[in-house]
Design a protein that fits this description.
Elements (H helix, E strand, L loop, with lengths): L2 E6 L3 H14 L3 E7 L3 E2 L4 H6 L5 H4 L1 E2 L8 E5 L2 E5 L4 E4 L3 E3 L2 E4 L4 E3 L6 H4 L1 E2 L3 H12 L4 E7 L9 H15 L6 E6 L10 H14 L1 E4 L4 E5 L4 E4 L4 E3 L2 E5 L1 E3 L2 H4 L23 E3 L12 H19 L11 E9 L2 E8 L7 E8 H19 L2
Parallel strand pairs: 1-2, 1-9, 2-5, 9-20, 11-18, 12-13, 12-18, 13-14
Antiparallel strand pairs: 3-4, 6-7, 7-8, 10-19, 15-16, 16-17, 21-22, 22-23
Helix pairs in contact: 1-9
The chain binds flavin-adenine dinucleotide.
The site of flavin-adenine dinucleotide has 35 residues, from helix 1, strand 2, helix 2, helix 9 and strand 21.
Length: 377
Amino acid sequence: MKLRVLVLGAGFGGLELTSILSDEIGDKLDLTLIDKNDSFIFGFSKLDLMFGRKPLEEVRLAYRNIVKPGVKFCQETITSIDPQARRVITDKGTYDADVLVIALGADYDVNATPGLAQGGHEFYTVAGAERLRDVISNFSKGHAVIGVTSTPYKCPPAPTEAAMLLHDYLLKRGLRDACTISLVIPSGLPIPPSPEISQELIEAFAERGINFIPERYVTALDPKRCVAILDDNRELPYDLFLGVPKHQVPQVVAESGLVEDGWIPVERKDLKTRYPGVYAIGDVTSVGTSKAGVYAEGAARIAAAGIVAEMEGKENLEMYKGIGTCYVEFGDDRVARVDMDFFSGPSPTGNFAEPSDAVGNEKKEFAAKRRARWFGL
Ligand SMILES: Cc1cc2nc3c(=O)[nH]c(=O)nc-3n(C[C@H](O)[C@H](O)[C@H](O)COP(=O)(O)OP(=O)(O)OC[C@H]3O[C@@H](n4cnc5c(N)ncnc54)[C@H](O)[C@@H]3O)c2cc1C
């Protein structure tokens, strides 16, 4: 009998776990990978889309390219998850599994921030980033506000990167003097675990004239007056608002009985949920790292090791460490690197490599390796 594994969600976590299981136990595996979309897009590609650096066709990685031993991809929408029975229902059928892995990521609730849908833009969905390409190319003067509306949110450096890339974009078009840029984030530092990169970023904001507003949220927009309202009731008039919307688990996860305090709790060491044979990895969990692809991927490695060890009747000696490399765009193709470690010490730490073209190339290599490993491209 082959091991029936159901992987829900073909994002960073689901793709990595599927690839590892196929490599290691492909001949004994009956794995079904389910996603509602037909293709994967790296989170950072949304920045490429909104600033017109790449077209959508160039950044889409089609799931039909997944050809791996023991793996079948199904483009279906999951409508029900029963973790007790390890049974999943989709718009096309019902699946039962020996092992269930939930890797459904985080969804957004744009309407949780009054006025955002009517008076602003979000750049966290592909559709939002696509819409912004035209909006940004028509923005020629006034105040651009980039603002976070709640925590947690994916890839904490992303709003900072958006501010730096907007500066670059406007500068190259000779429009920078006609525009102001403000960045509103909830933390005191741009990347709190790394004071070094945070300092570098704060200096970069000052050099570029980016108005940095730390320790604040945008709680609402008043579209009639074109004003962003912060959590201290301060008002920021804007001409262009780029927001990070409220994050939440997908509806089907919320209804599964797996969620506590907004996210799926898991054992930090092995990513197991409280249901036997059910793992959860990545943004959908409250494991304790930031929400980012590199951590989803690291969690996938540990969950995969646990699944293989259990199948072989061995003990899983690998533990999830919450380690991952984040790349931070400074504009002009210069990228910095932060090697994050969430769980080794009493609080998260990050080692920093200065922004450079070389690290920019490393980031390209990061993407290329995953294209090859997950999609054979
Ligand atoms: C602008 C931006 C920049 C970013 N930059 C980086 C970066 O530089 N580095 C980094 O590591 N991370 C970055 N991220 C974050 C990264 O994209 C996410 O944290 C990562 O994708 C999470 O992986 P995951 O596997 O948990 O979920 P996801 O990759 O989100 O995958 C979840 C999958 O589940 C599917 N799904 C959801 N609900 C259903 C359903 N009901 N039925 C079927 N399928 C469903 C979705 O279609 C999706 O494919 C960035 C994100 C953004 C928005």
